[in-house]
Amino acid sequence: MDSWPALIAIAIAVFFVMEWVAWAAHKYIMHGWGWGWHESHHEPHDDLFEKNDLYAVVFAVFAVALFALGTFADLPVVTAVASGITLYGLFYFIVHDGLVHQRWPFRHIPHRGYAKRLVQAHRLHHAVKGKDDCVSFGFLYAPPVETLSAQLRASGKVAAEAQERRAAP
Ligand SMILES: [Zn+2]
Ligand SMILES: [Zn+2]
């Protein structure tokens, strides 16, 4: 298949599916058996890189492999899929590494609209210590902040941590 509109539609569909893939990978892999890499992202540090960046490398290698397959085997659909994954990676980098974690040399904090909601939601993801009882595992879609705050309150983890800090000498 090599009709451009269809290929672009595939790339855009893959882009949206990737949000679900990233959500599931974050919730069930990174906060599960993959915590060994992801933990570095939940601990405060001054290093330029985190072990967690290896996940981005894995996704990038996967996308590059698909681009190679699409090009050399002349499979435009595969190239379209690889394009969708890469586009998602770009948005993920802008929102997560850029807007939320400020891993770029300029400071911009969105104060309005959907971008603000995304940033606040991911800050809430980092509101509790450790891998359990976290909320908001998506990156480009986030539930309303009130919903996430209610989830956090319901788990009692934030209150328990505050209690712990007060008890500490
Ligand atoms: Zn996480
Ligand atoms: Zn983060």
Automatic annotation (TrEMBL):
**Which regions span the lipid bilayer?**
6-25, 54-72, 78-95
What keywords would UniProt list here? Carotenoid biosynthesis, Membrane, Oxidoreductase, Transmembrane, Transmembrane helix
Q: Which GO terms describe its biological process?
A: carotene metabolic process; xanthophyll biosynthetic process
Which GO molecular-function terms appear in the entry? beta-carotene 3-hydroxylase activity; iron ion binding
Q: Which residues form the Fatty acid hydroxylase domain?
A: 12-138
Q: Which family does it belong to?
A: Belongs to the sterol desaturase family.
| PANTHER family (UniProt xref) | BETA-CAROTENE 3-HYDROXYLASE 1, CHLOROPLASTIC
| Record-given protein name | Beta-carotene hydroxylase
